[in-house]
Design goal:
This protein is of the alpha/beta class and 222 residues long. It is 45% helix and 10% strand. Strand 5, helix 8 and strand 6 form a beta-alpha-beta unit. The protein is globular and about 55 Å long.
């Protein structure tokens, strides 16, 4: 039975993926002069910024300036960020049901502070794991295993809700059941091809999964 829920942020809690893609696309064009389509940058969603810079081939002597410009563009877009419809109500319901929740994100903590804190959702989460908190970030299992440890549950007792290939890969490696957030997934066919344990069309579907598990648990005890 699910005893705790772990959440990704971008594309899961917040509708930020389009804005993040615009920011990295623009920063890359400014620094390289190359106008690449947004689809070329989807891989950057869900990995830490230092790894993004390395994979984009930004020269080391320009990397700090690139990250600074990239993050400035994200900051400019933050007023447009919205929490997905129904997500806040789901978090409130889980909090009232005393189901512990965590966040596992590839953001470093400084990025977390200006990309998420202003939304007023932090109090819902008992644990927040950022990129630097575990030995290796997603898609490695380390941050999920750390979240489970801090939540005092086994991996099998947790449920990870995310939208990306990195999320489902980390979940598989950690042995944590995975639910795909279709509402924010940009590579849904790829993730569906990896056979998530649950496929959710809206945040409220998460409550249906948990309620079904509680009913089955109750019947088993009869």
């Amino acid at each position: 039975m699910t005893r705790a829920v772990i959440f990704d942020i971008d594309g899961t809690i917040t509708d930020t993926n389009p804005l993040l893609l615009e920011a990295i696309q623009k920063a890359y064009q400014e620094f390289t002069g190359e106008n690449r389509p947004k689809e070329d940058f989807v891989f950057t969603l869900g990995i830490p910024s230092p790894e993004t810079v390395r994979k984009l081939g930004i020269p080391e002597n320009k990397s700090q300036d690139f990250v600074r410009r990239w993050q400035d563009l994200i900051k400019e877009a933050m007023p447009k960020v919205r929490v997905f419809s129904g997500m806040r109500e789901v978090l409130e319901t889980l909090k009232e049901a005393d189901i512990p929740m965590a966040i596992v994100t590839a953001k470093v903590r400084s990025e977390m502070s200006y990309q998420f804190d202003h939304l007023g959702l932090n109090h819902f989460f008992k644990v927040i794991i950022c990129a630097e908190d575990a030995p290796r970030p997603k898609p490695y299992p380390d941050p999920l295993l750390l979240a489970c440890e801090k939540l005092s549950v086994t991996p099998q007792e947790a449920l990870f809700l995310g939208d990306s290939v990195y999320d489902i890969t980390a979940a598989r490696l950690a042995g944590v059941p995975f639910a795909l957030a279709l509402w924010g997934a940009l590579e849904r066919e790829r993730v569906l091809g990896m056979h998530p344990d649950f496929v959710l069309s809206s945040p409220r579907d998460l409550l249906k999964i948990l309620r079904k598990g509680l009913r089955e648990r109750a019947r088993a005890l009869l």
